[in-house]
Design a protein that fits this description.
Layout lengths: L12 E4 L7 E5 L17 H4 L9 H12 L2 E5 L21 E2 L2 E2 L8 H24 L5 E8 L2 E2 L2 E2 L4 E4 L5 H13 L4 E3 L11 H6 L7 E7 L6 H25 L5
Parallel strand pairs: 2-3, 2-6, 6-11, 9-10
Antiparallel strand pairs: 1-3, 4-5, 7-8, 9-11
Pfam family, one: FGase
Protein name: N-formylglutamate amidohydrolase
């Protein structure tokens, strides 16, 4: 099951609006369910490798609308998170999961150390290196990561519709919650359906918290962004929230940006 990788590895990221000048950097780690042929689909049937265990359906469409509205760079992953979950450190069991929810991933079972290191070198490091480069070119950068989540998880229905997640630095989340409170009919919650205790803050931790850059991880329930029209609508709304939140921070939190 563990393929011999003689082919040229595809770039693990795609950059949209590369010349945009907004201080906001948008990131969509789980934008794609693509697996190069040499991985033999990790032994999964099509219904699993195209399901939410392999990517965040709808997230890229929403993120691209946000990038357009905000004049912001967007860096998106181009490979399935089952090959490597870009929002997990190499030490995490979930970085290359042998099981996702109730689904076994045969191609990741007993993964040889050589293959683990190869994926880290060819997927994880180039992606996060590109993020770091984009941040370094910005004055007072702001990080916004865009994800989606399934309405039912392990048999449990999730009522939250949009989650705004943070770890130690809650500045942008606090401001966005203030904006959403007055401008949204959606059920918006802090650190739901995931939070720092779930090990999902890696991108924000290493690029935001570690460097003092404010950031937020946005989670949208994927039944709200099934169609291109829905993705555009949610993307426009979220872009407005981020823009208004940054203006609110500038007015109310002098010196923090």
């Amino acid at each position: 099951m563990h393929a011999d990788h003689n082919n040229m590895d595809p770039e693990p990221f795609e950059v949209f609006n590369a010349q945009a000048t907004s201080p906001v950097l948008l990131i969509c780690e789980h934008a794609s369910c693509h697996m190069p042929a040499e991985y033999d689909h990790l032994g999964l049937p099509v219904e699993h490798r195209e399901s939410h265990i392999a990517w965040d359906p709808g997230a890229l469409g929403a993120a691209r609308q946000m990038a357009e509205d905000m004049g912001a760079v967007l860096i998106a992953g181009t490979l399935s998170r089952l090959l490597y979950d870009l929002n997990r450190p190499p030490t995490a069991a979930g970085a290359m999961p042998a099981r996702s929810e109730v689904i076994d991933v045969p191609g990741n079972v007993d993964l040889p150390e050589r293959e683990r290191k190869r994926r880290i070198a060819h997927i994880y490091k180039p992606f996060h290196g590109r993020v770091a480069e984009a941040l370094a070119r910005r004055v007072a950068p702001v990080i916004v990561t865009v994800h989606s989540f399934t309405p039912v998880y392990l048999g449990k229905t999730r009522e939250v519709e949009i989650g705004l997640l943070h770890d130690a630095d809650s500045r942008l989340t606090d401001a966005m919650l203030e904006i959403a409170k007055d401008h949204s009919t959606h059920r918006v919650e802090r650190n739901a359906p995931y939070g720092p205790q779930d090990g999902v803050m890696h991108t924000l931790n290493i690029h935001g918290d570690a460097n003092g850059h404010p950031g937020v991880m946005i989670e949208v329930r994927n039944d709200l962004i099934k169609t291109g029209e829905q993705q555009a609508e949610i993307g426009r709304m979220l872009a407005g929230w981020v823009g208004d939140a940054l203006a609110w921070m500038d007015a109310n939190m002098a010196g923090v940006l």
